[in-house]
Amino acid sequence: MLRYVKSGMMLMSIAYIVLGLMLLIMPETSLLWICYAFGVVVLITGIVCLIQYARIRGTGFTAPFMLVGGVITAGLGIFTLAKPQVVTSFLPVVFGIFIVVDGLSRIGTAIDLAKRKGQKWWVVLLLSIVSLLCGALLACSQLLNNRNVDLLLLSGIFLLAEGILNLCCTIYIAMEFHALDRLDAAKAEMETAAAPEPSPEAPSPAPAEPAAEESAETDLPDVPAPELTTEPPEPDQEPTADAAT
Q1: How far apart are CA 103 and CA 198, in angstroms?
Q2: Using CA atoms, how far apart are residues 108 and 111, in angstroms rounded to an integer?
Q3: 102: left (phi over 0), alpha (psi -120 to 50) or beta
Q4: pLDDT tens for residues 164-186?
Q5: Over the chain, what is the mean pLDDT?
Q6: pLDDT average, residue stretch 105-134
Q7: pTM
């Protein structure tokens, strides 16, 4: 079942949970370290997503989402490591964008699961829509800055919830795809067993007997042709004495 688990999603889920706990426990003192850690994890996650896209290129509905998510993730990771002081000012917006990308990726997986007639695919789709809304709210959190909203606290809550949600969905999706593949394999074996055995081949026809005339000709002994003798004609008889008188 482990081959069905997307390593990028698992890594992102763990990163969300760790960052969420750090923002809830020590938001101000660890903000710069959070930026560095976030940049490293995000960069690695983007590279993993791009590698997975290269492996499943052209197959499945999730391939375009993985490509877009991998490019955005890797780009933001590089920018976070290069400009951590700049990132800290709009860190909640960055977290919101990542949650939106994560929700889009799960929507593609839910559609793939629905195509294969998996159970409770609509639950994965519903939870993905919830992630989209939470990410959009966090990305637009600068609008709430004048309303005495603690953006770091809000980011920690959303990241922790998204990490747990994404982790559970990833494990469930892996189990569901594993069960569907086993079911398809069992159906294929049953169809193969129920298929009728091929009928034995008909005996090849005996070679045709030669015609009667040909066999008769071949059975007759060879008779030598008669030799032609040329004898000289007999001389005419002399007239007798009586005939002379």
Answers
A1: 52
A2: 5
A3: alpha
A4: 998 888 888 888 877 887 887 88
A5: 74
A6: 87
A7: 0.60
